[in-house]
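Quick one: structure for this chain?
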Amino acid sequence: MDIEQLDFRNLPYSGLFCDYIDRTDGIVPFYSRKHTYDDLKDAVSSYRFKGDRKKMADLIAGFNSGISDHISEGELAGILADENTVAVTTGQQLSLFGGPLYTVYKTMTVIHLANRLTRDTGRNVVPVFWLADEDHDFEEISAAVMPERQDVKKITLSCDACAYHAAGSIRVDEGFEQFRRKVYESLQPTDFHEQLVSLLDEAYASGRTYRDAFGTLLSRLFSRHGLILAGSNFRQAKEYSSNCIRKAIHHADEIQTILTEQSQRLGGSYHQQVQVTDSLLFWHDDEHGRVRLKHEDGVWQRKPGISFTRDELLELLEKEPERFSPNVFLRPILQDTILPNAAYVGGPAEIAYYGQMKPVYDLFDMGMPFIAGRMSATLVEPAVQRFLGELPFGFTDFLKRFEDLEQHYLRTHGNSDLDKHFETWKEQVDALTSKMVVEAGIADPGLRKHAKAITKEYNKSIDKLKKKMVNVIRQKEEVQTNRIRKVKSALFPNEKLQEREISFIYYLNKFGMDLFDRLLKQLSEQDEEFPLFTKHHIIKL
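Got it. Here's what it folds into:
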């Protein structure tokens, strides 16, 4: 595999993300540290876990025991209980069959950084993937997207009952089977197809929760590299982090104020990723799923007609901590309460909302972790590489609309002066009409107007002729225009970055179950080039 790098600013990334990666002065105050490898090393070296090491170790080891089979529960508990152990963490929603490519890019980033930091700091740095098992945006995780000829195919799982429930608790059932079948049918028959289907069948076995299924898939692919899984949607995790939730209840007004002020400061130069609300908490309701706890004037409302005072809510926290769920701003706090986390690996959206919440860490008397940009990449298949070499476009040209690329190609390769010739033709018709009107002595305004109308119709006929000529050229160049369409769809499917659209299982099926192992090995061998991921990678398979 050959790897080229491209500046993020040449691609559709936000200004905030680009400025953070480039350590621009205006963005630095919104984070705990600059985005440099030296700052990351210092964050890891100086990190001290404030929680109960043994309880944390037993909690995380127990969580992994039902999912991961690479390391025993006792061995993992021993590693995490060691004061010298520190985590680099990433996380994501529980997308079906693993989700798009950025899932594995996040995972590879924490593994890559953990290995390098262990070598460079003398600490035992472990890679952790936080399974976002409390999120309930089912629509966002309910599809798999596969390349199909010169386009992509989106395969969606319909589940009306799933819309409001935490994704981690939803189970693989009969309704999942049609989705499974359609995904398998979309995968090409390859030497690796049977092995991939076997893995997916094991992970997404009937009756499993989506959390365990997603975790099992990641574990089978990456536990050999030391990947540890974590999550929070179970009673023991909520009991361990109850002080964090208690503080969110006690200081709800203050938190809303500081989040609003920080977001406004950030919004002076950049976008605000997440809207600030009156509460950081949700409630897991048996009937209605995960619902937001609204807060106003000391009163907490679960739903119309059901309200609590602060003391009543705190009493519920003691009795049923598993009912309480963090929103996007509290989730990092809860996560860093549970884990010995010195750094978090995120994509553009996560980096943006971390910029909104630095003062929240201060209020909770916690240090904000180092925020590292995840690996970002486009995989280029051999056929696409070949077409790229034959077409007169660079990588970023394919950000343009297909129609614009096609027209440019046809103009430059059919007849580069085609537009010029037809424009000259119309100009000469206009000039001839003007000349003949004078020479024929046409002075009547009505007749002059009629002459111009004749010229206008003639020019329309010229345009029609040009269009027909372009169509003739298009037919002759159909092979190349099809290649343009194929390359564009491969690099920027649905007008988006490939990493955000295409399901990573497509590449495992086509290029081998060890594809990402090989890529990790190459990154490790070239780690002086990639101490942090500060460029977009173009990876030629």
